[in-house]
Each structure stands twice: as structure tokens, then as C-alpha cells.
Amino acid sequence: MSAPDLKRAAAERAIPLVEDGMRLGIGTGSTAAAFIALLGERVRAGLSVTGVPTSEATRLACEREGIPLATLEELPELDLTIDGADEVDGNLRLIKGGGAALLREKIVAVASRRMVVIADAGKRVETLGAFPLPVEVNLFGIGATLRAVEAAVAQSGCAGEIVRRHDASGATLLTDGGHAILDLRLGRIPDPEALSARLWAVPGVVEHGLFLGIADAAILAAADGEAAAVSVLGRL
Ligand SMILES: O=C(CO)[C@H](O)[C@H](O)COP(=O)(O)O
């Protein structure tokens, strides 16, 4: 079973969580895209939902599917957010931001009564950190911010290389909010809460990709022969 099939299997399991009339946070990335396609089918079949997209890419995908949208300003409280993740540990702590949407993803998830992650089971890890941790930073003074982030990393018991993310043309990648991303290649993050607190204390850091105490459940799809075995971490 291919990775896209597993993503679709996780997205399929999330669809029944969406109830008529819900205000729905809609995530970013390839797994979220599988969910958006399925949600579009349900909307065209008569389901009534209002979505709040977590990125411009997701907004465009939802518009193509005919999913009604609102902004978080119009709908500051959401019922449910469905989103992907780059890593999920056993305590439902996440790394997100591989798609550079972590700021809007975190704002939307925190505005939701529940957040459910959809992912292939390869995203499940014992210790966070093999996936480079994205940190969104203001462009002003980015060199100084990078040094301060290096110090924060060291103070929280981690070590590794910090790399500014570039786009396909080689320019500094800019997020939907016009910020840059620093990817922290740490290998492992023994104390995510400590690192989170240290990063937030750095002026210039807009947000980081550690989602701690935010996700309520994760739907994980693993290959089981020709089929997908879907398991749930936490409570749906
Ligand atoms: O955090 C994200 C985007 O900022 C995505 O949810 C994360 O990168 C997972 O993406 P995919 O479903 O394509 O593996």
C-alpha cells in the first residue's frame, strides 16, 4: 500500500467526525489534501460545514472543492480541526510545519474545541526530533535571531544544525505571514516543553512547530498487506 493510500485511509477515518453544521479547522499538507478531497465529496452530497483554512494553499484547495469558508475573525471558535503532522509521540505531542504553515495551523488548532491529527503510521515516534523542527521567525534581524535560537537550543539540552529554509528558486522561503523558517536539525528533543519555553523567549521567534497539549487524538494508518490498518491514539 502506497503512502498516498495510507494518507487517504487516515483521512477517511476522520470524515465521520465531521457533523452537520460544524465549524471546521482544515489543515495543510498532503494528508490534509486527501481529507479536503473527501470533505468536498460530502459537501457536494449535502453536508453543511464552514471551514477555516490553515494556509493559502488549503484555502485554494477548499475553494476548488466548493467547501464554504470563513476566517477565524468571523468564526473565532471552532468545533474541530483536522490536520496532518510531521511527527507524533505517545503523548500526542507533535512536530508540525513541514509545509511552512505552522503559525496558522497552531492558531486554528488552539481555537478549536478538538484537534485530530491524520497521518501515516510512519509519523509515530518514540522521541520527537528526527524531523527538523520548524521555527517561524521575523525577517528583521534574522542573523541575531538565529544566534539566540542556537543558544535556546543548547540551554534546553539539544544540539544540532540550524538551517534557513529556501524555496525551489533558492530564495528564503516566506510563509503565508511573510516570515522565514529556521529548521532545527536536532535528531532528538528530550524535553520538548523546555525547548518550547526557551524558543518562545527569543525575540524574533513568531512561533515554533512543537504542538504540545493541543492534539486530542491521532488517526494513524499503517500498511497491513494490501489493506490499511488504522489505529487511534487518544480519544476520538
Ligand atoms: O505541518 C504541516 C504543514 O505545515 C503538515 O501537516 C505536515 O507537514 C504533514 O504534511 P503531510 O501530510 O504532507 O505529510
Descriptive notes:
By secondary structure, the chain is α/β, with parallel strands linked by helices. The chain has two domains: 3-125 and 212-234, Rossmann fold (3-Layer(aba) Sandwich); 133-207, ACT domain (Alpha-Beta Plaits). It is 29% helix and 27% strand. The protein has six helices and 13 strands. The chain has helices spanning 3-14, 30-44, 56-65, 102-110, 142-155, 192-200; strands at residues 23-26, 50-53, 78-83, 87-88, 94-95, 112-120, 133-137, 161-164, 180-185, 205-208, 210-211, 217-224, 227-234. The strands form three sheets. Strands 2-1-3-6-12-13 form a six-stranded mixed β-sheet. α1 crosses α2 and α2 packs parallel to α3 (56-65). The mean pLDDT is 97. Residues 27-32, 83-86, 96-102, 105 line the site of ribulose-5-phosphate.
